[in-house]
Amino acid sequence: MNKACLECGEKIVGREDKKFCSDGCRNAYNNKINKDSTNFMRNINNKLRKNYRILGELNPEGKSKATRAKLLSKGFDFEFFTNVLQTKTGNTYYFLYDQGYMVLDNDYYMLVKKDI
Length: 116
Hints:
The protein is an alpha+beta fold. It contains 3 helices and 5 strands; from the N terminus they run H-H-E-H-E-E-E-E. Strands 1-5-4-3-2 form a 5-stranded antiparallel sheet. This is DUF2116 family Zn-ribbon domain-containing protein.
């Protein structure tokens, strides 16, 4: 039985369960399937990644403080985060994956990192 590559349509030689003729075709096929489908999604994912990098850069030890001005100067966008954590004591933390922040007084923010 002759099988064709899912990406380019070339004849596949080798194992019976192969789907692609080469690693290049396999990569190209998976990149097409997994790419962000719209500019809107791509832009949001880029903002989340940028926010995550900024928090990681300002919080290398896992717990620190930063000013709003410092976060904004690095390009942090407070509208983009992945989840919100409300503690029993009423504190609200905004997280980007495992990096988070909590609003303090006088435009300060507590930066934290979850242990995963």
